[in-house]
Structure formats: structure tokens, C-alpha cells
Automatic annotation (TrEMBL):
PROSITE patterns, per database record: THD_2
Lineage: Eukaryota, Metazoa, Chordata, Craniata, Vertebrata
Domain THD, residue spans: 76-203
Keyword Transmembrane: yes
Organism: Equus caballus
Localization (cell): Membrane
Superkingdom in the source lineage: Eukaryota
Gene encoding the protein: TNFSF8
SUPFAM superfamilies the UniProt entry points to: TNF-like
Protein name: Tumor necrosis factor ligand superfamily member 8
Amino acid sequence: MKQNHRGWPLSNPQLSLVSHGCDPDGHSATTTLRHQDTTDSRRGRRRSSILSPRKTEGNCSEDILCILEKAPFKKSWAYLQASKHINKTKLSWNKDGIVHGVRYQDGNLVIQFPGWYFIICQLQFLVKCPEHPVDLKLELLINKDVKKQTLVTVCESGAQSKNIYQNLSQFLLEHLQVNTTISVKVDKFQYVDTNTFPLENVLSIFLYSSSD
């Protein structure tokens, strides 16, 4: 099986991990998911949001959901939008989302097939600034362990009543066993904006390379 520079399997020719720039240690600073379609002359165009719908010439939005629906792998994948009623740090997701070959239970996606999974989460925050800075944090958890997190501080200028819109996203490629759980936690959950951009708060996973 072919591997990329990090040793991750690249078994699907239609998907690749693309790095943009390196940090001082030589590690990739930013990695995005690219859907390789030789018929799309606009391939490679960078977008501000990896999950934001963008209309193409066809009938499908150029986003993760479109990639999942058109990709040849159908064994295990999910696309969920955050619940409108968020009242705790661990997020819950709408049960009417797309879940195939994976189980949803109590805010967790539960793996049914072993293998390498690509996990993506994107959240929108709306903060009405108080008189002090506010830290927003997004965490991806495998079972109960934090595997990836993103932290940003807003309202640092102390401008009270100023509205700040902030997008946080995180991704992870991880080898998972059966009954492994995937969940998302946020710090300052009260600022997750489910009204202005209700379709932009998304958790998505897909089985990238099966090990059975």
C-alpha cells in the first residue's frame, strides 16, 4: 500500500492530503483534503472553509458531503450537523444526519469496521464581547482521550458588545478499532452559533482504508 510522507496509507487514488507550507521543524503547517477530479479545471482552488458549500457546474455542492456522496467508498461514513440546543461541553448532533456503517449514540460516533478513518469537525462561534478576552476551544476525542485541539482567543481588545464571528476546524487521520468512539468537546459551548450558520457546524468521518 502506498504511503504519504507521514506514513499514512493512500489507498484511494481520488483523495489526497495536500500540505501548504512547513513549520520550523519541517512538519506540514496546514493539510487539507483534496478531491482529485481531472475533469474539474478549477482543481486546487483554496477555500476559506473546508466544509462550506460551494456550487459547481453540476448538481452537487463542492464540499465534504459532495465528496462523500460521489466517492467510491461507501462502507462506513457519517455527516452530522450540531444540535440546535447545546447545553454542555460535549456536543450532541442531529439524529437525522447521514450515518452509514457507523453508529451514533449519546453524542458519540461508534466505529463498526476497523481501519484508517478521516475525521473532520467544523464549528462556527458568535461572541458578543464582554470586557475581557474569551478563549474558544475545539477538541476531537477518540474514546475519552483528546487527540486534536484548536484554541483561539477573541475579544482581546476589550471592545465590549462587539460581535465576533469565529470559525474553528480540526481534522484527524487515525486507525480505529471496532467500538471506538469519536466525540467533540468545546470550551465556551454557549458561543456555538447554531442560528446564523446552522449548516456550518459539522462532524464528518469516513473509512479511508479498511483493515479487514
